Every structure is written in C-alpha cells, then in structure tokens.
C-alpha cells in the first residue's frame, strides 16, 4: 500500500528548524555577551591598573613637590645666611677701616704737602691742605690712584696762598674708599 503521511510533518520540521535557529541565535547571543563581558573586564582591569599607577605617580609627585618647597626654603635660608655672613665680614673689615684710611693717607701724602682737614662721609673723603708745589699734588694724586684702599681722586681747587705765605697753595681734594670686595682682593694680592 502506498505510504501517505497525513500528519503535518512540514509544520513540525519548520518548528524544529525555528527552535534550532532560535537556540543557535540564543547561544550566539550568550557567547557574544560573554565575550563582551570578558573584553569589558579586561579593559576595566587595564583602567584600574592605570588608575593605580596614576595615583602612585600623583603621590610621588606630591612628595617631590614638598621636597622642592623644602629645598627652596633651604636655598632662601642659605642666601639669607650668606648675606648675613657677608655683612658680618664687611662690618668686621670696616671696624678697622678708619685706622686703615689714616694709615693710607699718611702713606700717600708726600713731603711738602700739609693737611689741615680730613673729613669722611661714608665712602667720600675730603682733604683740605696746603702744598709747596703742584708737582707734589700730582704725586699725591698718583699715590691715591695706586692705593689698594683709595680711588678716584679729584682736586676741587688750588688757590695761591695769602700774602704772608705765598710759597704754599691751598687745595681741596676728594677721593673715595674702594668697595669692600675690591679691598679684600687687593689685600689678598699684597
């Protein structure tokens, strides 16, 4: 007898194919979601690791910044102390400066020049005196120029003496005391 299948087998096959297709789609979706979860976890791990590195670097930078502030403070303290030391050295050397100036003036004044007044205002020294000749004043100017302590001599004026002492000329001279550092170098060289 001929075999006739009256059951809806095509329907059942179609439904089975649809179920199979849906299960494959669901499996693919699950696999894709699992892969996306793994990729997301991997990148989250990388991000977390980088954040830990960034936090560590920020902490180290903060410590270095505090050290830089300490170093700057120490540098300022060092500069302050160096200024104080220089000031103390200058005061120490200036303690005897008056005596040194008098000694140097005695050394530079040649015979035939007589001082009547010596006045000091800070670094300026004003000398008033009498001289037997202008050559002696020139010699005094050269002595001031070659001095380790004095510099920049200028003669303000030479006036021929009064009637009673025509042999002597009155003069006024100014010169300056060299700055402390130049004096220190000159003393070391001598």
UniProtKB/TrEMBL annotation:
InterPro entries: Extracell_DNA_Util/SecSys_Comp (IPR052534), PilN (IPR007813)
Coiled coil regions in record: 64-94
Transmembrane regions: 21-43
Domain of life: Bacteria
GO BP annotations, alphabetical order: type IV pilus assembly; type IV pilus-dependent motility
Record keywords: Coiled coil, Membrane, Transmembrane, Transmembrane helix
The keyword Coiled coil is annotated on this UniProt entry: yes
The protein's name: Pilus assembly protein PilN
Protein species of origin: Pseudoalteromonas holothuriae
């Amino acid at each position: 007898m001929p075999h006739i299948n009256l059951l809806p087998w095509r329907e059942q096959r179609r439904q089975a194919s649809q179920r199979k297709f849906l299960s494959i789609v669901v499996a693919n979706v699950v696999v894709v979601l699992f892969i996306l979860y793994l990729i997301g976890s991997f990148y989250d791990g990388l991000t977390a690791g980088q954040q830990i590195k960034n936090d560590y670097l920020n902490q180290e930078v903060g410590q270095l910044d505090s050290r830089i502030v300490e170093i700057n403070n120490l540098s300022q303290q060092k500069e302050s102390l160096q200024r104080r030391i220089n000031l103390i050295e200058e005061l120490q050397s200036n303690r005897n400066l008056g005596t040194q100036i008098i000694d140097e003036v005695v050394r530079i004044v040649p015979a035939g020049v007589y001082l009547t007044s010596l006045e000091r205002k800070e670094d300026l020294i004003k000398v008033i005196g009498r001289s037997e000749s202008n050559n002696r004043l020139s010699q005094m100017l050269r002595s001031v120029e070659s001095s380790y302590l004095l510099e920049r001599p200028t003669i303000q004026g030479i006036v021929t003496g009064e009637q009673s002492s025509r042999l002597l000329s009155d003069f006024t001279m100014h010169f300056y005391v060299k700055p402390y550092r130049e004096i220190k170098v000159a003393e070391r060289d001598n």
